[in-house]
Amino acid sequence: MRTPHVVVVMGVAGTGKTTIGPLLAARLGVPYAEGDDFHPQANIDKMSAGVPLDDEDRWPWLDAIGAWAHERAGLGGVVSSSALKRSYRDRLRAAAPGIAFVHLTGDRKLIEDRMAHRRGHFMPTALLDSQFATLQPLEADERGVAVDVSGSPEEITARAEAALDALDSSTQSDEAGPSPR
């Protein structure tokens, strides 16, 4: 029986957080929350105008995501959030210490192409450079996995689920202590 975790699907714009998040949630049998829905209108207006958000813009958004993750502790859930900086992930972990991150990664050209072909999203491709400049990949002491975004959504989701299962297995091994010889 899998313990329900709260998972943050993270990465730069265009990596597929909004596509992979719901698919992963369905595979894990937990609810999904779209991170963009936690943005105040002022943030959406700013990004729609091609202006990158600064940290002061992001704190209330991250706090709202963190509150949702905290409420889901022990129940499980998947939420999308760019979570590009370590300080952003630290803020989310402060609200919900047990969360795990799935960092969707990929080739910049592939991501830009996907962004250019999506419809109805407020994030223009012009902001992709600022996203990559801001990105601080997961560090060794952060609970999470990196998953490549090449392939179909189903393939990416399967890789994410397998990586989370492996993460859970390694965490359980670490908690059990050294294996007997």
Helix-strand blueprint:
Elements: E1 6-10, H1 17-28, E2 32-33, H2 41-48, H3 55-72, E3 77-80, H4 86-95, E4 100-105, H5 108-117, H6 128-134, E5 144-148, H7 153-176
Parallel strand pairs: 1-3, 1-4, 2-3, 4-5
Helix pairs in contact: 1-7, 3-4
Structural write-up:
With 181 residues, the protein is an alpha/beta fold. It is 49% helix and 12% strand. It has a five-stranded parallel sheet. Helix 1 (17-28) packs across helix 7 (153-176) and helix 3 (55-72) runs parallel beside helix 4 (86-95). The longest helix is centred in the C-terminal third of the chain and has 24 residues, at 153-176.
Question: Concise description?
Answer:
By secondary structure, this protein is α/β, with parallel strands linked by helices.
Key traits:
7 helices; alpha/beta; 181 residues
Q: What is the gyration radius calculated from CA atoms?
A: 16 Å
Total strands: the figure is 5
Strand order of the largest sheet: 2-3-1-4-5
What percentage of amino acids are in beta strands? 5-15%
Name the poorly predicted regions.
Answer: 175-181
| Overall spatial form | globular
The number of helical segments is 7
| Biggest beta sheet summary | 5 strands, parallel
Order of helices and strands: EHEHHEHEHHEH
CA(first)-CA(last) distance: 28 Å
Mean model confidence by pLDDT = 87
- The helix-and-strand class reads alpha/beta
Relative helix content: 40-55%
